[in-house]
Amino acid sequence: MSDNNQFGGPFGSNGGQYATTVQYGGTEATPARVALGEPPVTVDVIKDTTTATFAADVIQESRRQPVLVDFWAPWCGPCKQLTPLLEKAITAAGGKVKLVKMNIDDHPSIAGQLGIQSIPAVIAFRDGQPVDGFMGAIPESQIAAFIQKVGGKNNGAPQVAEALAAAAEARAAGDVQTAADIYDAVLEQAPDTIEAIAGLGDLLFEAGDAEGAEAVLARAPEAKKDAPPLAAVRAKMALAAQAAALGTPAELPRR
Is the pTM of the predicted complex or chain greater than 0.70? Predict the structure, then answer.
């Protein structure tokens, strides 16, 4: 994730920063919510696995494309909330990432080997190795951003458009952290995306980091530096600078 993003991010190389809501092997810490309706899924994209089939379903398959492993249990309320959202997002991604689900009550050894002590936990595998992950039930927009990041260079224009729409939705709802995460994830895979550059720059500026905003805007390709989204953010920043130079209305009579 870019060093210019002061918002930080949940998808670091050491896994997610989300606090888990249920302890592994324990009881529910929060009441289960009604699971969202499940969309039609493709067997080849979403499947269950066992200890015996994990190597083929995850390790070998991740050498062909990224695989997410959803560690869950029947007694886990937040798992019932998260899993349908994962399935929906994986289906919407059009097969660029696969989802494999593992019931840790029936098959606890893999979770133990990976050091998973609480669920829900989602671990991304690529090239036979775990590369990223998060814990706890997270919003749908953050799931989309995570899949966008894990999917890597397989992402195309439709996925970028979906991610930008999710960022706009998060921002409209006042969730600037999620919006920043999504913009940053887009820029990791498609660094010339003007809408993401402008969106992240604007968020940084509104958070009081004008220097960080300038640094993000400077990442735009030379041929696109005058694109309308970027020009709008620069105009906003210039207007704010002019207002700051004039001072508050109470200060004007003293000048």
Answer: no
